Amino acid sequence: KQARPTRPAAGRKSFCARTCMRGKACLRPHRRVVWLAVRTRFTRHQLRPTRRSHLDLDEVDSGLYRASSKLLWVPPGGKSVFGGQVMGQALHAAQLTVHRDSWLPISLHSYFLKRGSPNSDIIYQCRETSNLRSFDSRSVDAIQNGQIIFKMQAQFARPEESQLRHVERADGVTGMPRGVVAPDECLGMDDLLGDLMARAPAALLPLIEELRASPIEVRYAVGAPHDPLDPDPPSMPSRQLLWVRIREPITKAPGLDAACAAYISDQPLLLTALRPHRISFPSPKLGALATLDHSMWFHGPFDADDWLLYDMHAPFAGSGRALCFGHLYRPDTGQLV
Q1: Burial readout 191-215 (b: 16 or more C-beta within 10 A, e: otherwise)
Q2: Is 215's pLDDT higher than 90?
Q3: Residue 301 has pLDDT above 70, yes or no
């Protein structure tokens, strides 16, 4: 069912992270973005009556952007806005304040301070903390109901070639992990959830439907996971390898792939720490599962709507917290991105 969208307030601009009415990729400001974006085709992952992307922002003023509550997403089993979405929107907002051609994010460091409500808009306030010859930096506060719920510091630079370059994992092996099955040959989360639909109790069916509507497509790179309906799952290593990508094609605009990678990176990383403890998510054994802080470094170009290998490891869990690391690799070159 298509909801009739409202027109944006006069004089305000919006930034569309998908496609314009002519079918061309765009990220330029235009005044009737809601009416343009509503003409795009329906996407499975939208859980609300909208045709806009989870990363779309409306410009309120210079350096000030708004994420409509209609676009905020709560993960299945969760109570607050998905942390990966807040982080992705914040990085997207910061990128919109970088006015140098082809400059892209090289790092971000963020803190989640309060729970985000899906019932209120989020305002992203960006400050230009530095504009240097080689680097730009931006500070971003996510504000909801007058309170800061999230903080980010991001840095940007122009991509350039360097003679000093290497990629090495902790085990001394160069490049992407070996022996990983190609994504087309791997079991997907959609396959697993489809099987669960036929076996799960009726009370779990709405949760499974929400999982199937996730904007992130996932395939298991090394073997199948344990049965989510198993009340006593086996203990598993604190490492997992997944193939991940955004389900729908995205606009090739500066920094948008990095914002999507931030979106993707959050939830699977947390779940890695639960594997040795025989806990699935969601689970009655868990009171809450939330990110406290999250940092990322970007090393090379990639497409977030194409497959990336996500290699995750959780070397420590204790005192109600866990430490998790993740690496994203391009399958075509094996490059760490």
Answers
A1: ebbeebeeeeeeebeeebebbbebb
A2: no
A3: yes
